[in-house]
Amino acid sequence: MMIRFRPRRILAAAMLSVPAFSVPAFSVLLFALAVPLAVPPNIAASFLAGACLEVFTVSWATTLQQQIPPEKLSRVSSYNALGY
Predict the structure, then answer these.
(1) pLDDT tens digit sequence for 1-35
(2) What pTM was computed for the model?
(3) Distance between CA atoms of 9 and 23, rounded to whole angstroms?
(4) What is the Cα–Cα distance from 41 to 31, expressed in whole angstroms?
(5) What does DSSP assign to residue 9?
(6) What torsion, rounded to 10 degrees, do the Cα atoms 18, 24, 29, 32 define?
(7) Cβ(73)–Cβ(64) below 8 Å
């Protein structure tokens, strides 16, 4: 998906995908605990959450590699992995 979708502001696209990820992910969990949902809504919400997570992950990794100098990239990546 991210091969075709090339936003002009990569980090803005990453940050906008986080709320879009949380809505289907948490709503499915909350509704599944209260009322059993059918399989198609669960599949659709999971697909949407996965697509949003992919947008964030690819955009974040691309931004790190473009903005951090190569000699400092390993240190920043290790701090990134610690905070993930």
Answers:
(1) 667 777 788 888 888 888 877 777 676 667 766 77
(2) 0.74
(3) 23
(4) 11
(5) S
(6) 180
(7) yes
